User: What shape does this take?
Amino acid sequence: MRVRRVRAGLKGWGGVGAMAALCALALAFVLLLPWTTRSPGDGSTGQAGQGVAAGTQAADADCTDPEKRTPAPSSADGTTIAEIKARQGEKRKLIVGVDQNSYRWGYRDPNNTGAELEGFDIDLVHRIAQDILGDPNAVQFKAIPTNQRIPAIQEGRVDMVVRTMTISCTRLDDVAFSAPYFKTGQQVLAPKSSTIKGYDDTLAKKKVCTATGSTANTKLVDDKKAGKIASSVVIAAPVPNQLDCLVRLQLGEVDAVVTDGALAASQAAQDPTVELKGAPFTTEYYGVAMDKKAADLVRRVNQILVEYRATGWQASYDKWLSATLGTDATKSKPPAPQYLSTS
Assistant: This one.
């Protein structure tokens, strides 16, 4: 049965085998990339320029709506943005951490000439670069695995991460987030032939895969400790990249995957032998992650998102996600954003 499942999974878009190979290449690519570090005067202090309040995000015991804990939009250039604009020659680019293996989000289609990065997240990156640097292609993409999203920001390797990253109270201790640009929720992905029906008792005695540092992993661990899922659920050792879970599922090494439903739908589109099981059991929002001290950059991205929601978001959804999530985008588009009070 496992052999048939793996073979079936290799059909369709470029083959999931090709995606697995790309995943391995992505990790190698990350390890070989030179790290870009910030000097003390390169804007990493993030002190806002004229007309931009400083201020940072922080999680606390009362944090219940992390997607609302972001500063109000501003078009003003602060220190961080000024330093980005001051980069010379080929280095005058926005440095962005992305995924290159998430189908329809951030990926390289081997069937396209050049196999340039494309997808829903990549469209947003180009829009941000257009606004800040006047050129949508003024971007240096850095492929990073799931478990390196926060370290990449903290260590100054990237200016921001646009990589299906859920805004959470815990993460607000480490990074700042923009207002939400996408709404999703955790779901279960399993073989069509599986007896698993969703995030319920049918997971008992099943081995479940998640990615290191993912909200899915945190949810599983917390729910098992709290007795909200069966004690017999086996939480597999987390993997660096979420796509690794799909490969493990295809190889029969795990019984199910828990991840964002938006990502799971794209993976199900790649492999016709798997499907989403049950409804989403959380509500989560993707945001652009940045350095906590770069308040001016966070505000600028929030301003860009205001305009992007009105002109650009729907076209990008229709192009990349309607085939996997359906033509009705209302369930995926976040409500009008709310911001931290400036008083």
Remarks:
- Residues 102 and 263 are 7 Å apart (CA to CA).
- The two ends are 62 Å apart (CA to CA).
- DSSP finds eleven helices and 15 strands in the chain.
